[in-house]
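Bug #77: duplicate submission created two jobs. Keeping one. Sequence:
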Amino acid sequence: MTEADRRAAERAMGEQLARWGRVCLIQTVGRVSGRPAQAAVGFVDAPDGVLLVAAGSETAAWALNLAANPRCRVTVGDRTDDRVAVRLDGADHHRAITELILRYGTPAERLGAGPSFRLERGPHPGG
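Kept job's structure:
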């Protein structure tokens, strides 16, 4: 399997999981390329309508893209919303990590090593 085939298979799997509502697809703007980038990411639907997400590494491309430009587009199931990422710190970060681990279980052991965000409803990434 070529690298391109592997990436295509991962993308297809992420899209299927997003259709099922298991993950969200986050479309960001590449911080270096300026081109659209997409990642499948675990999430928690917070009671106030925001989505909580967290990276397992400080170098996760999607998280670095959000840090550079917080506007994104998020798809879960058949719903696509424009969002703005707000980085979480301290107790809010720990609460988000706890909620994500409770949802996804212990395979998320690296969760919390990278940044976490609230994805609030906001403007389109291009506008």
